[in-house]
Amino acid sequence: MISALVVWLAVSSTGNLTIRELETTGQARLALYDSSLRAAIDRYRYLPYVVARHHQVIDAISDPQSAQIANFYLERVNDRSGAAALYVLDKTGMTVASSNWNTPDSFVGEDYSFRPYFSQAIAGNEGFFFGIGVTTGRAGLFISNSIRQNGAVIGVVVVKLELDELEMNWQEGGETVFVADADGVITLTSRGDWKYRTLSPLSDADRARIVRNRQYSGRDLTSLNVGQQLAKGSGIVTISSQRFLFDSKPIRGSDWRIYYLTSMDQVTDRQAAVMLIAIIGGGMIVLVILFLRERELKLASQREAREFERIQALNTRLEEEINERRRTEEELRGTQNELVQAGKLAALGQMSAAIAHEINQPIAAIRTFCASAKLMIERGKTDQLDQNIGQISSLTERMGAITGQLKTFSRKSTGVLEAVDLKIALNNALQLLSPQLDSENCTLERHEPETPLFVHADLVRIEQICVNIIRNALDAMENSSVKRIRIDLSSNRNDVVMRITDTGPGMNDETLSLLFDPFFTTKDPGQGVGLGLSVTYGIVRDFGGTIKAYNTTTGGACFEVRLPLLRDKKT
């Protein structure tokens, strides 16, 4: 009786211990598979949004004759990105341009209005749909975004991702993992015989909808009948007479769910071994326990070594993807810095007339004092030269201050974020703009607290924000009888707030909605390229802040910039 109890306790405890170990390992493996899948998707998720805003794509919708230009553009972008296909649909769902326009499987001219990703994007949402391609017969993930013109949706951009390489890596890993969509259809799996099987039988309505969408054409979608077992999220499931320990989690940003399964054979094998050892060594319970512990430690060490190698390989792949993402971000950040520098140089060019006038005045005065000094020398009145020389020295210092401001403003940003007093940045910008303010007879009002207002930013780019907004205000007041700019600086518990208000005519609703879009401008051709406020928006967002524009009750416009307040300057 005691021997039977010992055997039962040994078998039971071994099974429980093994299950806990497998659960811990399964959770870690599930997290890695989830990360790799999301990384593969997120790498392309931005692409439809960016392409939908390109003028060549918008032109292809508005003017079918320009579709070939869009074909070339989509082909270049798709080749660089590595996606399976990139194509554009008009408002009816007809393909007007595609990256594979010159292949036998070209999407151009195909009607995809029946696909859910089209209706989702037309409604203004991001489309996310997995299915078998009706043209190529190859399965893939379709991500879509709407094309807008003047606020209205005029078409859809779609990128298709083929996840075959990811699925092949899963199969080579020798583990059991799969992804099911909202209908319970297995879309990605390391088990080829489970692909396009369902977790539970589909209802007639669901099956009809899938057929209508032509989502899994030619697939029977037979059921594994495990939906109720898997509904708990984790536990034990029996599939085709084989028992698995499983864990699952939803995939963020989609209606998919990923499952990781571990065979229960390991548990059964260990329990059988323990039972055999317990029966044979019934009289040697202590020795058996010591032996089992040593064996468990060795097996655990071997499993950890194998797991470490697999995890290390996955980490290496993830690290490569992260490095690639970082390189892309660095390139984008470098592009933004170049735009900031170009904007500063353009601003200097547009202010050159006022700055030249500011420098010409002391030059003319120096000439006058020099002529006067020459006459004094000729007449022998050298005792009066000190005053003339002092005036000339003062004027040269003034010219040096002006050129020093130009040199300081034109320098490139270091990209290092530090504690910056917004009041000092505003002072630097106003010193540079003072000649233009004077030449346009613009009155400046400043209202600010006496204490510093520190933000975590870059001084050069903060100055660029101030210069861009104030110059915009000057341009807006070109035809105003009264030119006045009011600058209000304040802070609350979390933010530093800068409001710059002008006495111009204000802006209409369409201008307000497109104000921060790249290349949007209300100026005449040749007067601006529409990048100043777009760059300003990007800088503010990089600093964790927000910017908005609105019309005041008195008729002018106001730009409001909010940046996080840095309470401790040392941090």
UniProtKB/TrEMBL annotation:
Q: Which residues span the membrane?
A: 272-292
Q: Which InterPro entries match?
A: dCache_1, HATPase_C_sf, HATPase_dom, His_kinase_dom, HisK_dim/P_dom, HisK_dim/P_sf, Sensor-like_sf, Sig_transdc_His_kin-like_C
- What is catalyzed by this enzyme? ATP + protein L-histidine = ADP + protein N-phospho-L-histidine
Protein topology in the membrane: Multi-pass membrane protein
Q: Name the CDD domains on file.
A: HisKA (cd00082), PDC1_DGC_like (cd12914)
Q: Which residues form the Histidine kinase domain?
A: 354-567
GO molecular-function term, one example from the UniProt record: kinase activity
Q: What is its EC number?
A: 2.7.13.3
Q: What is its main location?
A: membrane
EC main group: transferase
Q: Where found in the cell? A: Cell membrane
Ordered alphabetically, the record's keywords are:
ATP-binding, Cell membrane, Coiled coil, Kinase, Membrane, Nucleotide-binding, Phosphoprotein, Transferase, Transmembrane, Transmembrane helix, Two-component regulatory system
**Which Pfam family would be a valid example here?**
dCache_1
Q: Tell me the protein's name.
A: histidine kinase
Q: Supply the source organism for this entry.
A: Thalassospira povalilytica
